[in-house]
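Lab notebook, page 48
Experiment: co-folding of the full assembly
Goal: obtain a model of how the components sit together before planning crosslinking
Operator: M.T.
Materials (sequences as entered):
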Amino acid sequence: MENTQVSAYVNALGTVAAPGLRATLASILATEAEHMSVILGELHEPQAPQAVVTGSKPT
Amino acid sequence: MTDRPITRRRALLAGGAAVAVASSPGSARAAVDKALVKKIERRAVGAATLDELRKMVALEAIANGRLLRPSETSVVRILEEHATQHAAALGQLMKDQLGTEPPATPKRTEISGLLGLRDRTAALRFASRLEGRAIATNISGIRTAYDSQIRQALAGIVGSDAQHLVLLRQLLHEQPVPSAFERGAA
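Observation: model returned without errors.
Model output:
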């Protein structure tokens, strides 16, 4: 779910016109990426597996 | 009340003129706007690139500085590798899309506070501050950039830098996600 949300925020940042809203969305994206990292740690997986975090689209 | 139609007419004329100026491909206005947009984007991506280059140099110095435990050094090496990839990607973006060279890589002596680090806690806190600063710079770039590809490139890096912050906070035994809005620190 966190992964899908990150993807949705990255896509939204490409389309949203309002600068202030983009900044807020980016700060939420960052928090979602942090959640992913914590969850990966609990799963004993690498917590920062990629240099670029774009999430994955829902299947 | 009597002058309302005149005002409307004037507004329509002014609006029509503005549309004509804006939509004319060769107009001076359009050229100025385009140049201004490029300038803003060069500044935003240039600042983000410089932050990543600064991190790359500082993290390498910290990893080589023998202040950290082996497991901590391994983590910092991963962060350094990611910062290198971020700087390379942003530098390429500057060349390809913004038609300008990326900023030069700073020397260790140019990174304030780096050479004065004396213990592992100070080194990890320093790395954490650099990650926070990079996040703030990238979010500022997302706010100001007009090009959606640039914004999305910066967004991917924001996510990565945020994960770096989690790793560093955990090494420092701090709350890994202290806020619902990660804005970094200017």
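Interpretation: The first helix of chain B runs from residue 4 to 23.
Next step: discuss with group before ordering constructs.
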